[in-house]
Fold this sequence. Notes:
Strand content: 5-15%
Shape: globular
Distance between the termini: 41 Å
Helix content: 40-55%
Low-confidence stretches: none
Strand order of the largest sheet: 1-2-3
Mean pLDDT: 93
Number of strands: 3
Order of helices and strands: EEEHHHHHHHHH
Oligomer: single chain
Largest sheet: 3 strands, antiparallel
Amino acid sequence: xxxxxxxxxxxxxxxxxxxxxxxxxxxxxxxxxxxxxxxxxxxxxxxxxxxxxxxxxxxxxxxxxxxxxxxxxxxxxxxxxxxxxxxxxxxxxxxxxxxxxxxxxxxxxxxxxxxxxxxxxxxxxxxxxxxxxxxxxxxxxxxxxxxxxxxxxxxxxxxxxxxxxxxxxxxxxxxxx
Length: 177
């Protein structure tokens, strides 16, 4: 198989060109799915959401979609926030422990897309001391990507974090800073 992807229907599609990189007209596309969930409500919702534009959606709905079960929907909401220039909304979600973990992570990723427009006050709000290790790790990574020298001491402190992923991200980020 040379490629695999998930369709809007939730099924996995696998491309098999048979002759490797010498085409021989014997290739096939296989569909892999679970018949028990192929027509489920979540699958129908995802298919509809993928087909729709998020351009006119309310902020509250986009926030909910940042925590959606399907990554494609989370990414679509993340990119819509970035397109609208809503950096403060993303930092609010990223720093809120009451928000779903995946919504917080996608908010941090979205903030990284504002790389050239970041202010010192924004950098000071990165949740580097959050109770969730993945949020600390993603925040440390973002601090490095932003070359946030003002957070160097926080990153140094994270080198002693109990979580190895957090320590790894802090070390890489210190190298960038």
